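Protein fold
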Amino acid sequence: MILFLIFLIALGLSFLCTAAVRRVAVRLQIVDHPAAAPERKVHRSAIPLLGGVALFVAVLMVLGGTLLAGVDYSQSGIKIKHLIGLFAGSSILMIGGILDDTYRLKPWKQLIAPFLAIIAIIA
């Protein structure tokens, strides 16, 4: 039952964070315009970017909340060092995604963040 409750909290936070990040992306004009590459776009109006930020924040809040509530992850073989690696890797991916959404990085530059994230998780 507790896992279902955690799922519902994560779901609700995902919706709330997505709505908040969507407003911020529109306000800061971090949107995907179909006119940028019309042959590759299927949408007709500007679409807000940064959706990954919303999910990252929601997951971070749920994970932090469960840790503060005293959920013992060691019973399932998950150690604190695993959570730190997960946080480090996902933070690097998040920064890379924000940079890509904001500055439209070239494909080879988009590969830098995933490689750094892999190294962080392995370390």
Remarks:
- Helices lie at 2-27, 51-68, 80-103, 107-110, 112-122.
- The first helix runs from residue 2 to 27.
- DSSP finds five helices and two strands in the chain.
- The radius of gyration is 17 Å.
